[in-house]
């Protein structure tokens, strides 16, 4: 199961990287959010994909899931959500002001 | 007593929330900001005093024992940097009202300013790798808001690049933390260090280390990764540039210093050897950038890169003298970069332009600014007896004792060029005939000049009072070279 997930993560990373290398603002943002999903998946499988009870002493389970990756993911998702929201607003405003969403046209020049 | 460790995080955070509510009343907000900045500075000074007399403070938050809970570690290195951060925060808090427009002030500048300080302090204090990522995000989020404050066309254009590159490197950071957790099963830095030492840093761990170096190198603007830095740093208000130049890249370099003296220290011939070359290239390319432009703000922004080079050089050489040089230079550079950014902000304001070709003879109208710039250039380049000299001397002696001749020559040569790049502002901007045709602004107000004098005072003290400061820094370097002290103080075994 972990091997399969590793391939899925790899594919997500590939698509994300491809999108980041394009010039269009929105594609880059989508690429970044695909990569962030890949990373979230990666954190989950880093704890091992096993079924089991909650990691509580009172439950007395023989196997239990690792709680730390879940705590990490929760934090990572929230942060990523906030940053992506900000990024979308920022790119919209940039598009409005500059009239373009192509990074080739957003280089700036020497005399400004 | 261990609760003292969280005060440098809590106070700016509370201050940021409070000034968000007084937003409508600008006069009150300014006073509150300055009061809180001074309180924060005094508290930081007190905590520093406590740490230097009684040893590191470890706070296990929520009473979860290390390595299971999140811990804050206020050791001598972190607390020294927090004190410096608070000195810078206090200076900029007094400079800001004279520099910002009313619109920027009412759009929550002061709140974001305090949140930035919160994030920086948190990053210095945390003893947990994932928590370091969280505090990085706190300070980056505040910096995203600060850089675009004002919403001008050029600001929007540069800030979107800044946000994208930082977001991407943050993602790599999480990847590295996840991989490290997969291999070692912990994210507590002390326990990571312990386990890496147990398996003698196998190949995969060195790879993860280099991935982490890539992440921190992007934030710190090291040689191949510095391309994003100069332009976004010159578009916001000078006070924001000063905060960025003094704090943001330095958090990256602190992380490298921490991770590569505590955790990844078993394959020095791979990692640290590479740092020396990266340091040399950072110095060369940074200085070329600084010489290539006539924009005075851009000259100072490019000067960040060789300074980072100097600090990473000490980490690369990795002996006690070079490391203490790095730490000394780090503290020195935080203060002087802030002062220089504030200073060129004033100069660009009074001259009405930041283009060197359009200004000359400023010394007739603004003698104080001229001489302040002159002294700052000396401090930056490391002319004795100022603070840059002490740091560089220790660095170069460390380099020579490890027989790294090439990097010594590059460092000396780039120091000379750094001096020239800043002196260029003095020579071309301040010398020359009085020009009656140019209309100058009124005298630069005292509120703009005093914070700069305050910062330069600290810089001069770091140079002249080196006998008092250097032993402490040397002690920190000795402490960094023995990771076991940190591990034992956190895990208490």
Walk me through what this model shows.
The complex is a heterodimer of chains A (112) and B (493). By secondary structure, chain A is mainly α. In chain A, helix 2 runs antiparallel to helix 3. Chain A has one domain: Helix Hairpins (Orthogonal Bundle). Chain A contains 3 helices and no strands. Chain A starts with a helix and ends in a 14-residue tail after the last helix. Chain A is 65% helix and 0% strand. The longest helix of chain A has 32 residues. Chain B is mostly helical and 493 residues long. Chain B has one domain. Helices cover 76% and strands 2% of the residues of chain B. Chain B has a two-stranded antiparallel ribbon with strand order 1-2. In chain B, helix 6 packs antiparallel against helix 7. The mean pLDDT of chain B is 92. Chains A and B meet through helix 2 and helix 3 of A and helix 6 and helix 7 of B.
Specify the overall morphology of chain A.
Answer: elongated
Strand order of the largest sheet of chain B: 1-2
Order of helices and strands of chain A: HHH
> How is the main sheet of chain B built?
2 strands, antiparallel
Which architecture of chain A would the CATH scheme give at its second level? Answer: Orthogonal Bundle
Largest interface chains and counts: A-B, 31 and 30 residues
User: Uncertain spans of chain B, ≥5 residues at pLDDT below 50?
Assistant: none
First-last Cα distance of chain A? 55 Å
Q: Name the structural class of chain A.
A: mainly alpha
Structure summary, number of beta strands of chain A:
0
Strand percentage of chain B? under 5%
Features:
heterodimer; A: mainly alpha; Helix Hairpins; 3 helices; 0% strand; elongated; B: mainly alpha; 21 helices; 2% strand
Summarize the model shown.
The complex is a heterodimer of chains A (112) and B (493). Chain A has helices at 2-20, 25-46, 67-98.
Element layout with pairings:
The complex is a heterodimer of chains A (112) and B (493).
Chain A (H helix, E strand, L loop, with lengths): L1 H19 L4 H22 L20 H32 L14
Chain B lengths: L6 H15 L4 H29 L2 E4 L10 E4 L1 H24 L2 H5 L2 H17 L3 H20 L4 H32 L4 H10 L4 H18 L9 H5 L3 H25 L8 H21 L4 H7 L1 H14 L2 H32 L15 H15 L5 H15 L3 H26 L15 H19 L1 H16 L1 H9 L2
Antiparallel strand pairs in B: 1-2
Helix pairs in contact in B: 1-2, 1-5, 2-3, 3-5, 3-11, 3-15, 3-19, 5-6, 6-7, 6-11, 7-9, 8-21, 9-11, 11-14, 11-15, 12-13, 12-14, 12-18, 13-15, 14-15, 14-17, 15-16, 15-17, 15-19, 15-20, 16-18, 16-19, 17-19
């Amino acid at each position: 199961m972990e091997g399969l997930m590793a391939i899925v993560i790899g594919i997500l990373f590939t698509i994300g990287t491809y999108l980041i290398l394009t010039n269009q603002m929105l594609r880059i943002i989508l690429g970044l959010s695909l990569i962030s999903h890949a990373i979230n998946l990666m954190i989950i499988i880093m704890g091992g994909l096993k079924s089991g009870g909650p990691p509580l002493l009172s439950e007395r389970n023989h196997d239990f899931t690792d709680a730390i990756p879940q705590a990490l993911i929760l934090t990572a998702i929230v942060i990523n959500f906030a940053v992506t929201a900000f990024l979308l607003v920022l790119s919209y405003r940039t598009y409005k002001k500059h009239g373009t969403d192509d990074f080739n046209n957003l280089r700036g020049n020497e005399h400004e | 007593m261990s609760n003292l460790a969280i005060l440098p995080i809590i106070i700016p955070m509370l201050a940021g929330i409070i000034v968000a509510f007084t937003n409508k009343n600008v006069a009150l907000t300014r006073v509150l900001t300055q009061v809180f900045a001074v309180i924060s500075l005094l508290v930081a000074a007190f905590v520093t005093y406590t740490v230097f007399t009684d040893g590191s403070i470890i706070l296990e938050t929520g009473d979860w024992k290390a390595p299971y809970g999140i811990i804050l570690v206020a050791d001598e290195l972190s607390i020294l940097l927090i004190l410096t951060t608070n000195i810078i925060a206090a200076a900029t808090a007094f400079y800001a009202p004279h520099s910002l427009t009313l619109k920027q002030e009412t759009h929550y500048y002061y709140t974001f300013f305090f949140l930035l300080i919160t994030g920086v302090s948190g990053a210095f204090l945390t003893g947990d790798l994932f928590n370091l990522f969280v505090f990085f995000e706190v300070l980056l989020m505040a910096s995203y808001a600060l850089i675009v404050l004002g919403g001008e066309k050029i600001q929007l254009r540069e800030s979107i690049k800044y946000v994208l590159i930082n977001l991407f490197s943050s993602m790599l950071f999480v990847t590295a933390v996840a991989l490290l957790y997969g291999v070692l099963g912990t994210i507590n830095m002390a326990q990571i260090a312990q386990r890496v030492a147990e398996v003698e840093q196998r190949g995969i761990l060195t790879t993860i280390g280099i991935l982490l170096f890539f992440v921190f190198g992007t934030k710190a603007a090291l040689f191949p990764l510095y391309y994003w830095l100069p332009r976004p740093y010159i578009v916001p208000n000078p006070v924001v540039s000063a905060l960025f130049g003094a704090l943001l890249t330095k958090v990256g370099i602190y992380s490298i210093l921490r991770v590569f003296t505590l955790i990844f220290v078993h394959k020095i011939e791979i990692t640290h050897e590479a740092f020396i070359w990266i340091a040399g290239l950072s110095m060369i390319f940074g200085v070329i950038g600084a010489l290539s432009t006539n924009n005075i703000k851009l000259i100072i922004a490019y000067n960040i890169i060789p300074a980072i080079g100097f600090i990473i050089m000490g980490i690369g050489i990795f002996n006690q003298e070079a490391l203490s040089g790095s730490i000394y230079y780090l503290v020195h550079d935080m203060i002087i970069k802030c002062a220089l950014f504030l200073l060129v902000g004033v100069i660009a304001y009074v001259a009405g332009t930041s283009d060197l070709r359009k200004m000359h003879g400023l010394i007739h109208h603004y003698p104080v600014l001229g001489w302040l710039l002159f002294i700052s250039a000396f401090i930056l380049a490391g002319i004795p007896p100022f603070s840059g000299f002490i740091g560089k001397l220790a660095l170069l002696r460390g380099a020579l004792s490890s027989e790294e001749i090439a990097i010594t020559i590059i460092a000396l040569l780039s120091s000379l060029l750094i001096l020239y790049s800043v002196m260029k502002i003095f020579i071309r901007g301040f010398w020359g005939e009085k020009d009656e045709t140019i209309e100058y602004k009124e005298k630069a107000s005292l509120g703009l000049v005093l914070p700069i004098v305050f910062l330069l005072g600290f810089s001069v003290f770091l140079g002249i009072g080196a006998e008092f400061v250097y032993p402490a820094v040397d002690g920190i370097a000795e402490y960094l070279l023995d990771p076991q002290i940190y591990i034992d103080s956190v895990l208490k075994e």
